[in-house]
Each structure stands twice: as structure tokens, then as C-alpha cells.
Amino acid sequence: MVKVAVLATDGLEEIELVAPRSALEKAGATVTVISLRAGEFQAVSKDIYPSHKIRADLAIADANPNDYHALLLPGGLASPDALRMNRDVVAFARAFVKANKPIAAICHGVQTLIEVNELRGRTVTSWPAIRRDLENAGAIWVDNAVVVDGPYVFSRCPADIPAFNKAMLRHFRLA
After folding, report:
1. Which of 24, 77, 107, 157 is the most buried (most CB within 10 A)?
2. Between 15-26 and 161-171, two packed helices, what is the crossing angle to 10 degrees?
3. Residues 65, 3: contact at Cβ < 8 Å?
4. pTM (two decimals)
């Protein structure tokens, strides 16, 4: 069984977790939401409107990257920004990169990978507002719905979720 870790916290764009998690679970994966602390955190819609509370299954301090086959990095404006500032989150993501495990990032979710410092020369896509951040990290940014480069799947925004889910499931060997 494929086990997928998801990193998210307050300010997560809800649909960027809920829709991919549903696709993963329908394909037979086990999905664990990992946050800065266990318990509930506040998701948003359109980056600013509070939506539902999301339950984190595990705190990052208690998470072991060796327990998972793949990593999902959903976006939203605030969640990735908070995650990238946490040493445990960056170390967790770095372990996936070093082990060459598949990683799927949508919207601002890719910001965590900027902190890992492994995007140099990679072709990526994201929400356009962070294009310059990615280019400054050495990535080659393109405006496509989905980009697959090595172990990574990248996507821009909620409108791209159907294409993102399809690519992610293939990349995670679930389709």
C-alpha cells in the first residue's frame, strides 16, 4: 500500500488538499496529514476566506519520512510560507528529495522545496506570483497546468486539479 504524507497548516487552500487526498484514497493510498502540531488547523478558500477546519493526523516533530512513499505539498498563501520556516518541515521534505521519492506540489506548495535547495535546473510550474522566487532558486518556470520533472509533479492552481491529480496518481504509481 502506498503511504502519502501531506504537509499543511493554517492558511492551507482547502481544495488543494481535499481533492488530491480524495483521489489518492480512491486509488488505494493511505494519506496522513502532517502539520506543525497535531489537531485542527484553519483552511481557507481563495487564500483569504476561512473555510473548514482540517485535522492533522500527526505533528511534524513526530513524523518520520521513512514511513511514507510519497509527499504532497498543497498550497494556499499562508500554509507553505509557515511550513518553509520550520526546520523539521524542511528536514522532512529534504529526506524525500535525498531518497528520490515522488513529490507533488500545487500552487504555493512548492515553496517548501525552495528551502530544501534542490530545484536548480528543474522545470517547474506554480501560482505565477512565486515565479521569481522559483527562478531565483535556479528553477526553470513555465506556465503549464502540470509539469513532471524527475521525482516531481508541479501544478499551478485549483483549476488545474483534475490534470494534477491524474499526473500525481501516475507518478505515485497508483494509476
Report:
1. 107
2. 40
3. no
4. 0.97
Across-strand partners of 70?
A: 4
Helix (H, G, I), strand (E, B) or coil at 27: coil
Distance, in Å, from the CA atom of 87 to the CA atom of 83, rounded to the nearest integer, reads 9
SS3 120: coil
SS3 69: coil
CA distance 83 to 60: 10
Q: Output DSSP code: residue 50.
A: E
Query: Tens digits of per-residue pLDDT, 24-80?
Result: 999 999 999 999 999 999 999 998 888 999 999 999 999 999 999 999 999 999 999
The residues assigned a catalytic role are 107-108
Q: Which residues contact 144 (CB under 8 A, 6 or more apart)?
A: 125, 156
Tell me if residue 76 falls in helix, strand or coil.
coil
Handedness of CA 80, 81, 87, 93 (dihedral sign): positive
How many CA atoms are closer than 13 Å to the CA of 37, on its beta-carbon side?
5
CA distance 13 to 108: 9
Q: Which residue has the cell 488538499?
A: 17
